[in-house]
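call fold(seq) -> tokens
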Amino acid sequence: MLYIYDSYQTSAESWAQLMTPGGSHSVRNTPYDCIFIALMVEMNHRQYIDTGGFDGFYTYFATDKFTYGSTRRFWPQLKSIAEQTDSLFIPSVGPGYIDTGVRPWNGGNTRLRDNGNYYGNSWKAALQTNPHIVSITSFNEWHEGTQIEKAIPKSVYGLLYKDYSPNSPDFYLKLTKEYAEKFAAIRE
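ret:
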């Protein structure tokens, strides 16, 4: 499986040359064939599924309401599109988002972790769509505040990274395990 970030930067017609069986540079039915996943940012990115030859799409962004694709209330509709096109819908969950240390102008997209509630709500919204796959944004993108790996208070180059206080350093790994088990149970 290959996730293609910013897939919309290349036209659906160009992707079709690579990812449809009749494309001029098709990798389908070759040793390079795989499951190709497009990034769904806006609704019109559906064309990448309809004509581009992608096998599915993911939402990537950890900020609810940042893009059409990352807006959780649209996930049931996106799941329906996936079912209509026989493709994969892969909702992306995240623990929160804060990138103002590297993008000071982007405070409007900050989503506080709320002691794990933001992450839990993200997982719940994903699981309600009964997806085949859930992706996590991210394991270690500290500069965007989406990390779930163990965390302790630390300042690097004057930027203080958030830890999970008052919870343990592995709090988000434990939450991930809990929701992964719920996901596995509904997939059985």
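The chain has a mean pLDDT of 94.
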